[in-house]
Amino acid sequence: MSAPRSRRFVGVDAVEVAFRRADGSEQVQPLEAVRAEVLGGAAPWRSFRWYHGQRRYSGSYRSATESGHVVYESRLELARLLFADFDCSVQRIVAQPFRLRVEIGGRGRRHIPDFLLHTGSGPVVADVKPAKRLQNPEVAFTFEWTEQAVAARGWRYEVWSEPEPIELGNIRFLAGYRRAWLFEPDVDLDGEILTSRTRGRRTPMTLTPLGQAVLDAICHRQPDMLVGHTE
């Protein structure tokens, strides 16, 4: 049986947002009244538990954008997190930022988006789902009314599925080196010469084209800079 369509029912005034502050207290507001800045400090809505034999691959990722850990519940969510952490426009990353609640056709509906991204062009609410599950009627229905509600608030909404494997591989490799303490503040990204510390003294180091490309990709958060570069 197909899920009901929500297009006639969902407006920003009909949606309730519940979120948890860092101290654990729960707040409930109409979606039209909640501010993205407040949600930027929200704690994950669900409690994360790790146990032997669990079906999902969950954990926490040390985000350079957040200078702290961000939780995820699947490998695909981790992939989205890696991409967000490498996106120059993303200023904040919040996992499971809130729970949406709306009544459609006399039935209460709830949904917890996977991420809220604060970007230079405004908030982005992101859901992560394998492509093969997007045709599931209930999944499609949930994403439909969520998109309507988020768009009515003036925010962007995205559903993210499997990325291109080579690009993900580049980002996964570079992510381990995006740590501020690894680089001197005076690194020159436009030249081939930079300084590095060797046993307490500065020594010149000449970069190969591939080395320069890797450094640029790390510092500029643009893994596509590596395309076409080989040893």
Structure explained in plain terms:
With 231 residues, this protein is an alpha+beta fold. Helix content is 23%, strand content 29%. The protein starts with 15 loop residues before the first strand and ends in an 11-residue tail after the last helix. Residues 1-6, 191-204 and 227-231 have low confidence and may be disordered.
Overall structural class, as computed from helix and strand content, comes to alpha+beta
Tally of extended strands? Answer: 12
Please indicate the percent range of residues in DSSP E strands (runs of 2 or more): 25-35%
Give the neighbour order of strands across the main sheet: 2-1-6-7
Shape: globular
Compute the number of helices.
Answer: 5
Report the mean per-residue pLDDT as an integer: 80
Query: What is the ordering of alpha helices and beta strands?
Result: EEHEEHEEEEEHEHEEH
What share of the residues lie within helices? Answer: 10-25%
* Rg of Cα set: 21 Å
Can you summarize the main beta sheet?
Answer: 4 strands, antiparallel
Distance between the termini: 55 Å
Low-confidence stretches: 1-6, 191-204, 227-231
Write the layout of secondary structure elements.
Layout: E1 16-20, E2 26-30, H1 36-39, E3 59-63, E4 68-72, H2 75-85, E5 90-95, E6 99-104, E7 107-111, E8 115-119, E9 122-128, H3 137-152, E10 156-160, H4 165-175, E11 193-198, E12 201-206, H5 209-220
Parallel strand pairs: 9-10
Antiparallel strand pairs: 1-2, 1-6, 3-4, 5-8, 6-7, 8-9, 11-12
